[in-house]
Amino acid sequence: MSRFFFSRKLPWLIIFLGGVILGFILFFSGKRVIQYTSTNTYCKSCHVHPHATNSWKLSTHYNNSSGVVVHCTECHLPPDGILHITEKARMGVRDIYGKLFKDISKINWEEKSDLAYAVNFTYKESCIHCHQNLFPLSLSKEGDEAHLYYNQMSDQLRCINCHLYVGHYSENIIHAKNVAFGKSIEEKEIYTTPAVIESFENFTEYVPGSYVKFEMIAIPEGSFVIGSPEKELYRKPDEGPQRKVFINRFFMGKFEVTWDEYIAFYNQTASEGRQTSNINSSSEENKTDAITGATPPYGPPDQGWGMGSRPAITMTHHAAEVYCQWLSIVTGKKYRLPTETEWEYACRAGTDRANFFNENPRHFSNKNLVNRIIRSGKSNVNAYVLYAGNSLGKTIEPTEMEPNPFGLVNMLGNVSEFCSDWYASDAYSQITKDSLTFFKGPESGTEHVVRGGSFRSEARGIRSAARNYTRTDAWLLTDPQMPKSIWWYSDCNWVGFRVICEYDQIIKLNKSEQ
Description:
This protein is of the alpha+beta class and 514 residues long. The protein has helices at residues 2-36, 40-46, 52-57, 72-76, 82-101, 109-112, 115-118, 124-130, 141-152, 159-162, 259-269, 284-289, 317-331, 340-348, 369-375, 381-384, 472-475, 503-513; strands at 203-206, 213-219, 222-226, 243-247, 250-253, 335-336, 416-422, 448-451, 467-469, 495-496, 500-501.
């Protein structure tokens, strides 16, 4: 009986023992596979980022006083556990697909290093796994305040928000006050007098005390219908109701305010490193001194893309308004930010379609693969607008794009632009017969209107009626200063501004001087 029982159970026993043995083999071999595929050498076999290894070896995660080397997977995968395995599998499939089917010579590695991409490939849990004490004795006062702020905002912040280049060094990044900002400008002819306006036509403005000049376009008076029709593709509710608005004539900057122009303002008004004269004096020079300008920014505000004639970015709405006040004083004219109605009128330039170059946004949507293939190289958008589909993830010099019918360049791309109005989702419903001319929007609010697309906008944002607004708290989330800067955004690199000059104000001044 026992022999029969044993013979009946033997096959199952063999299967069980075989399963146990196979399990051990799979476990240990699987562990060896995971270990092998987590080595730096294996990572480099698929990752063909041209300077990933070099920048890693120059970083504090490789070259530091402790001698501890942080390896690829210690940052780019969660710590050990189920999430480690699942993320490893997900990223492995992605990497293998890219290695086999993508043309690596066409990958924009600089754009891939941006925070918007990097947050998808680093893990806060991994940072904290190594950096368990956020308040070591060696931490500076500024670092102590920053980490305290991080603890208070840990549900919104990740370590990489502030320490983006700790694992891959970048020579363009300064994680401190950029006291050298604006001091390496090439010396050129210094202008002593501003432009004289005698008629309503395009002119070139000269900024006294600097080598800066810029073009202003005469925008004729007229009327237009603000907002978008209900059937317009990608329309949002805050783009209506449509209203007919009358606009007085004005001058508008042909281009967005450039770094050269903004640095001229910074050098003459910066609140640190300049001598201040008697502000009670009535001279124009001392009126300028009465304006307190920006403090030095943290790091390179141009993101390392270059300055010169590229649009100035990362300054706050407040900074843009102070710039206009300064420009008004040094030129003797009335400069300011455009109202929302003036901006859309200038952008449309007599057109009434979704955009002034009259192309269906479907045809250049960088989310629509079929249209991208069919319309490749045939789209008007590439001549007029720098947006997500053609920008390579950064701004360009303005002369690379064609102007709209009024002669204004980059009204729908490169960078979005501040308007003077407070934002309200129902602003257009407040336009009445008494406010058809020079409608300024709500009398108060918490955020300001932002108009026009940028280098990171998709097709839905490349429309004349598209509206946006500042997000002050979010755009200052990682500012390490206490209190937050009123001059520089730490988390917004896609908004700039252009200026308006009031012609009727010039006429009044000229008459009063006669």
